[in-house]
Automatic annotation (TrEMBL):
Residues 1-14 have a biased composition (Basic and acidic residues). The keyword Hydrolase applies. This is protein-serine/threonine phosphatase. It is found in: Cytoplasm, Cytosol; Membrane. GO terms for cellular component: cytosol; membrane. Residues 23-295 form the PPM-type phosphatase domain. Pfam families: PP2C (PF00481), PP2C_C (PF07830). It is a lipid-anchor. PROSITE patterns: PPM_1 (PS01032), PPM_2 (PS51746). InterPro entries: PP2C (IPR015655), PP2C_BS (IPR000222), PP2C_C (IPR012911), PP2C_C_sf (IPR036580), PPM-type-like_dom_sf (IPR036457), PPM-type_phosphatase-like_dom (IPR001932). Its EC number is 3.1.3.16. It is an enzyme of class 3 (hydrolase). Its cofactor is Mn(2+); Mg(2+).
């Protein structure tokens, strides 16, 4: 049976919430994989003075769920509790910390949690060899901080189009490949040493033991790329998802699909469930997780869209009935 089941597990985990002018919904499904290795974080109102900030993330684990699960619970505290991030509150304005210190604090948080997990006995002695990507978004009253480490992805939909997308960290990327080769590794069949399909991740300590190289110079780096974008009234929604989603839908396809579903339902869990089900039917063989974060300018339910959707449902039902009748 290998890494796949005889039939997919289609039960879903859902959650939703609202606050700080945002609404979110999420859905995850194990699918065809033998284990569920994805995890997520959704925090509206960051504790200890950042109550008007929010944080969302998706973690795509591999070789186990240990790292993904730990990060889903503790990554945010490693970010907000480190010295660089705390310095952000001192150098910024009274209303919002400085952008550069926030970005430095996020980066430091990733390096800190990766260093911290390395001392876990099961990870240190090789009993657990798991790793995880991480894609997240930290939303302040003025800025959106996109955070990416690995090949999960985040997109921003603004003014009716994809405005921004994080870049996947793949071994064949020239900059990633150069770091891998400088650390004594190679890229074969688009994988690190012919094995790992991502060039940045948390965990994966088998790829982080090159003597004389710092943590960001190893075969696999835990360093995230952090992008800052000013918020705008035209912001509609953000999608965070693992590659089980992106493998079968492009940025534009997924955003247009989400837009069309938001026009017939204001239940964000349902919208996310539609995405996961669609990706399963489109052939995704991986775990699937999606977090949808909507701003106040997100598409609204439309009577016209609901009418067209109802007509399409009736048409499809009639076609199915015709096909069954022929048999």
């Amino acid at each position: 049976m290998g890494a796949f089941l005889d039939k997919p597990k289609t039960e879903k985990h859902n959650a939703h919430g609202a606050g700080n002018g945002l609404r979110y919904g999420l859905s995850s499904m194990q699918g065809w994989r033998v284990e569920m290795e994805d995890a997520h974080t959704a925090v509206v109102g960051i504790p200890h003075g950042l109550e008007d900030w929010s944080f969302f993330a998706v973690y795509d684990g591999h070789a186990g769920s240990r790292v993904a699960n730990y990060c889903s619970t503790h990554l945010l505290e490693h970010i907000t509790n480190n010295e660089d991030f705390r310095a952000a509150g001192k150098s910024g304005s009274a209303l919002e910390p400085s952008v550069e210190n926030v970005k430095n604090g996020i980066r430091t948080g990733f390096l800190k949690i990766d260093e911290y997990m390395r001392n876990f006995s099961d990870l240190r002695n090789g009993m657990d060899r798991s790793g995880s990507t991480a894609v997240g978004v930290m939303i302040s009253p003025k800025h959106i901080y996109f955070i990416n480490c690995g090949d999960s992805r985040a997109v921003l939909y603004r003014s009716g189009q994809v405005c921004f997308s994080t870049q996947d960290h793949k071994p064949c990327n020239p900059r990633e490949k150069e770091r891998i080769q400088n650390a004594g590794g190679s890229v074969m069949i688009q994988r690190v040493n012919g094995s790992l399909a991502v060039s940045r991740a948390l965990g994966d300590y088998d790829y982080k033991c090159v003597d004389g190289k710092g943590p960001t110079e190893q075969l696999v780096s835990p360093e995230p790329e952090v992008y800052e974008i000013l918020r705008a009234e035209e912001d509609e929604f953000i999608i965070l998802a693992c590659d089980g989603i992106w493998d079968v839908m492009s940025n534009e396809e997924l955003c247009e699909f989400v837009k069309s579903r938001l026009e017939v339902s204001d239940d964000l869990e349902n919208v996310c469930n539609w995405v996961v089900d669609t990706c399963l039917h489109k052939g995704s063989r991986d775990n699937m997780s999606i977090v949808l974060v909507c701003f106040s300018n997100a598409p609204k339910v439309s009577d016209e869209a609901m009418r067209k959707d109802s007509e399409l449902d009736k048409y499809l039902e009639s076609r199915v009935e015709d096909l069954v009748a022929r048999d």
